[in-house]
Design goal:
The strands form two sheets. Strands 1-4-3-2-5-6 form a six-stranded mixed β-sheet. Strands 7-8 form a two-stranded antiparallel sheet. The protein is flat. The protein is built from 17 helices and eight strands. It is of the alpha/beta class.
């Protein structure tokens, strides 16, 4: 198996593949030491040809690949495509289209929550994939034939899986369900990171307005710095250190150095100075402008019980309709509806509402019940 490192060979291969109705695509990348994923390998398979493109070969021009991926007449088939979409968005400010994601399609068809590629290959094709090259450092060269064969197996089997899942979706009338999910994963806005909102990912120990203002400011500083330096967020500031700084609100290098894991040298460095500047500016923000935490409070045992009943109903509906639970509703959404039947959650819209949402609201209002009959849970409807 030959790795394409030559621009002329790549252009010729992409020209041949441009005549395909659909292509299966995968990427290999490294991210342990960077903020942005470093694309190392691109695998593309057509009906008669599969190629592996060395994305880090000196002088390689990936424009023919990007043109192919953006061809609106060719369906691009991925498995669990979000990381692939993020990579291509970072490189081209766009995402491939149109796309078919076999992991999402498998969830729609009842193969389980976020099923892995190798398990899906086993279930649908009955083939065991050799995982010996799974933890390869894809940035190292040369790559062995075994590594390249492993990488290409990710796209060669994908074609057959796509054909089978597409047929199942058509037969059970769920093509629109998949399309709805793909609208989100292929939208460029999904991969646009707003530094002012990344604080929402943190596990906060306080809801004090001043604390939240500082957390937001420090998280935004860390995000921009990580992007600028292309290093992981925790290389700039670990989560626990960021929260400790926000709680202490230091105003001087000496005060900053008293924070756990912050050295005197760091406190007086350029990074320390920038942190203190971010804190100083944040302290000028009025308390009434503090960001808000939207929390679903389960204040009593009754609220907890409603969530647990909704989980039981969700499991029943997922089994009845042969679709993955995770695709129908997240636990956070169940908690939101348990607290407020008018909550803006996904399972109260579209096909999710039809198969689960309507009955979830009836269960919450007491118009639908769950009972045990012959060791099985049954749904009872109350007038």
């Amino acid at each position: 198996m030959t790795l394409i490192t030559d621009n002329d060979l790549l252009a010729s291969a992409c020209d041949r593949l441009s005549n395909e109705a659909y292509l299966s695509v995968d990427t290999e990348f490294m991210r342990e030491k960077t903020y942005y994923p470093r694309l190392c390998l691109i695998q593309i398979s057509g009906k008669k040809e599969a190629i592996a493109v060395d994305a880090i070969s000196p002088g390689i021009n990936l424009e023919p690949v990007f043109k192919l991926l953006n061809d609106p007449t060719i369906i691009k088939v991925f498995h669990a495509c979000r990381q692939d979409m993020e990579i291509f968005f970072h490189l081209t400010n766009n995402t491939p289209t149109p796309v078919f994601d076999t992991q999402i399609a498998a969830m729609v068809c009842g193969y389980g929550d976020a099923i892995s590629y190798d398990k899906l290959v086993k279930q649908i094709l009955g083939i065991d994939i050799d995982k010996s090259s799974r933890f390869t450092d894809w940035s190292q060269r040369p790559l062995s034939n075994a590594q390249l064969n492993y990488a290409l197996s990710d796209v060669t089997h994908l074609r057959k899986i796509y054909e089978k899942l597409k047929k199942q979706l058509r037969e059970n009338g769920r093509e629109t369900w998949l399309a709805e999910e793909l609208d989100f994963v292929t939208s460029t806005t999904t991969y646009m990171i707003d530094p002012e909102k990344v604080w929402l990912r943190l596990k906060l120990r306080s809801g004090r307005p001043q604390f939240l203002i500082l957390v937001q400011a420090l998280a935004a500083f860390r995000e921009r710095e990580a992007q600028r330096r292309d290093v992981p967020r925790n290389r700039v500031l670990r989560d626990d250190v960021l929260l400790d700084i926000a709680a202490r609100a230091p105003a001087t290098p000496e005060e900053l150095a008293k924070v756990r894991s912050i050295s005197a040298n760091f406190a007086t460095s350029n990074s320390g100075t920038q942190i203190l500047k971010a804190i100083s500016l944040a302290k000028q923000i009025p308390i009434d402008k503090a960001p808000k935490i939207e929390r679903t409070e389960r204040k009593n045992n009754q609220g907890t019980a409603v969530v647990e009943l909704l989980k039981v109903l969700l499991k029943m509906k997922a089994e009845e309709h042969n679709v993955a639970q995770k695709l129908i509703a997240a636990t956070a959404d169940l908690e939101a509806v348990a607290a407020d039947g008018m909550a803006d959650v996904a399972f109260l819209k579209g096909w999710r509402r039809e198969i689960f949402g309507n009955d979830a609201l009836l269960l919450k209002s007491g118009k639908l019940g769950l009972s045990i009959e012959n060791q099985s849970i049954k749904i009872t409807r109350n007038s």
